[in-house]
Design a protein that fits this description.
Largest sheet: 7 strands, mixed
Radius of gyration: 22 Å
Structural class: alpha+beta
Strand content: 15-25%
Number of strands: 7
Order of helices and strands: HEHHHEEEHEHEEH
CATH superfamily of one domain: Gcn5-related N-acetyltransferase (GNAT)
CATH architecture of one domain: 3-Layer(aba) Sandwich
Distance between the termini: 36 Å
Mean pLDDT: 77
Oligomer: single chain
CATH topology of one domain: Aminopeptidase
């Protein structure tokens, strides 16, 4: 019984390291979404089953961060309606999980429902305050750009408050055209056509992120199992101690 969690975790770790090494060594020098080994951040596609974690992440945002993310001081109820209305079949929602499987950053790539703008998508991102300064926003944007290219999108649109300096900086650094209109700004980034390299890179990133998530899930389950075993053992010790009392 004790060997199964350890052997399973060891298998996942070895496979994960092998995949990361393969992708890192094969990455072209100019690939902005594939940093050197040790700097890779697993970005995973989210599904409807992740709604509770998405809601938890967004509700935990500070008031000023909610304001910058949604363009208004969103309440818990408004955020809950936003999460409830997420369309995982049409749009792409990406996330970054920590080792406790808490969602610490997420991005929403919303595809146009107007046939006239079928090759356009809008990007939005949020990062937990304690995870700032790690480049998660940039990584999520680069990942979204790569995914959008592979889906045939020719332009990414970003609507942000003019005071959202971080988001506008990411857009400008990527080469987007930013137009300011009072308190609001709009950024437009034209995307090149997808290539075989971008498609393979996107596929590998998704596979690696899924593997990373499964590894964290295995570790989470193992810690829960270990805590239960330790609790049982402690209960047995206490029972023995009580039975030996005169």
């Amino acid at each position: 019984m004790n060997s199964q969690p350890h052997s399973s975790l060891g298998f996942w770790r070895q496979l994960w390291r092998r995949w990361v090494s393969a992708v890192t060594l094969g990455a072209p020098a100019h690939a902005v979404d594939q940093p050197a080994f040790g700097g890779w951040i697993p970005i995973r596609s989210l599904s409807a089953r992740h709604k509770p974690r998405i809601l938890k992440h967004l509700v935990a945002l500070k008031p000023e961060d909610r304001y910058l993310r949604f363009g208004y001081p969103a309440t818990d109820e408004q955020i809950a309606r936003y999460v409830s209305g997420l369309n995982f079949e049409r749009d792409e929602i990406f996330g970054v999980f920590n080792r406790r499987l808490d969602l610490v950053a997420m991005a929403h790539l919303a595809f146009s429902i107007d046939p006239q703008w079928a090759t356009c998508a809008e990007f939005g991102v949020s990062v937990a305050s304690h995870q700032r300064g790690k480049g998660l926003g940039v990584r999520l944007f680069n990942h979204a750009v790569m995914h959008a290219r592979n889906e045939g999108v020719s332009m990414i649109f970003i609507h942000a408050l003019s005071e959202n300096v971080a988001m506008l900086k990411i857009a400008r650094h990527a080469g987007a055209t930013v137009q300011r209109d009072g308190s609001e700004s709009e950024a437009y980034l034209s995307l090149p056509l997808a290539t075989l390299d971008s498609q393979i890179s996107g596929l590998m990133q998704e596979q690696m992120a899924e593997l990373d998530y499964q590894l964290k899930m295995q570790a989470h389950q193992f810690r829960a199992w270990l805590a239960t075993v330790q609790e049982i053992r402690q209960g047995v010790r206490d029972a023995r101690h009580t039975s030996h009392k005169p």
